[in-house]
Amino acid sequence: MQDFTYQNPTRVHFGAGQIAKVRDEIPADARVLVTYGGGSIKKNGVMDQVEAALEGYQWWSFGGIEPNPSYHTLLEALEVIKREKVDYLLAVGGGSVADGSKFLALAACHAGDPWEILAEGKHPETALPLGVVLTLPATGSESNGNAVVTNYETHDKLPMFSELAYPRFAVLDPATTLTLPERQSVNGVVDAFVHVSEQYLTYPVNAPVQDRFSEGLLLTLIEEGPKVLSQPDDLAVRANIMWAANLGLNGLIGRGVPQDWATHMIGHEITALHGVDHGRTLTIVMPALWEEMFEAKRAKLAQYGRRVWGLDGDDESVARAAIDKTREFFTRMGAPVSLSEAGIGADSIDQLVDNLARHGFTAIGEHGDITPDVARRILTRAA
Ligand code: NZQ
Ligand code: ZN
Known about the structure:
Elements: E1 11-14, H1 22-25, E2 31-36, H2 40-43, H3 46-53, E3 58-62, H4 71-83, E4 88-93, H5 95-107, H6 115-119, E5 130-134, E6 146-151, E7 156-161, E8 169-172, H7 182-200, H8 208-224, H9 227-230, H10 235-248, H11 262-274, H12 278-292, H13 294-307, H14 315-333, H15 349-358, H16 372-381
Protein name: Iron-containing alcohol dehydrogenase
Pfam family, one: ADH_Fe_C
Domain Fe-containing alcohol dehydrogenase-like C-terminal: 186-355
């Protein structure tokens, strides 16, 4: 196992009625901005619960944060923060609202051009405190310091990380997810699956605790994931998925082990260029990446095949069959496993690879050996 430092500062309130805890978390004299997306929270009663929790507070709201949050929309929210002297952010929604609000938490305290935060990694020394009421289990954003923001004018979808961006608290009430459209439920399951894989499917470093945690999460997502299609009103299923997605990217399983993330970096380019949902870019890229990087990943693929899929045989055949099983799982979930299934032609591969290189992602993967040429081969396999 590799050496590491681990802290997750986000307090999680999980279960029915927990939105009321917002009141215990946010100081009574705070000036709060509630950020949200396209309005799902107004239809499903989540906003009513947030309003009840904030009774007596001074608060404002900013809606319209898009899936894959837009940098320019967030600049509008930043104006509200400055005008109203907001000093606490409450994000209510999915990963996009949480991510956009993390960027805002930093941007509100940044003296220079906010774009520097994303493009140059220039971060302020402090950030506004942030809480999250999660309505879409997928990203783990409610319990981590990551955010991804898109500049639609330039097709730049850029990730950032800051210790300052960890939410102070996160409310996970599975009942809020019962209104998810099937497509978003699927996106969440496969996104969480790929998060675990990015931290697990690399090479062995004698880290059985992390491996067993990861295998447990993958097995849970394989067992519970299809149930959101067959029994979408089952609250227990929603709860299991919500907790699995949180643990998939709250930092725990990735400590002390190599991490990949190349599927995500390539996937972000597909979203930036073609607008494909985040989770669906991952199901397109990851199986092709595993095939292209087969030798480097063979040992872990074989372990995964045996422990998660119950396969028997020699390493080579188990590892190959594990990739097939993964594709079948994504297909069973209704997610695409090729660019063509997402309506993207092979003629866009050059542009995707150019954008990846322009963003500086020229040596990605756990060994830093996924160069633009290798990314091109991965995308060609995924065509
Ligand atoms: O905007 P509203 O009206 O709320 O509708 C949203 C949106 O259209 C809807 N939705 C959310 N909760 C709902 C609901 N509809 C009905 N009922 C509910 N309870 O779902 C749609 C998608 O929401 P979004 O927040 O975009 O989805 P997700 O949580 O999958 O977030 C995706 C974003 O997170 C980034 C992705 O790149 C993408 O921009 N990621 C963030 C990560 C992180 N911070 O660690 C890691 C991930 O790998 C990922 O990159
Ligand atoms: Zn993801």
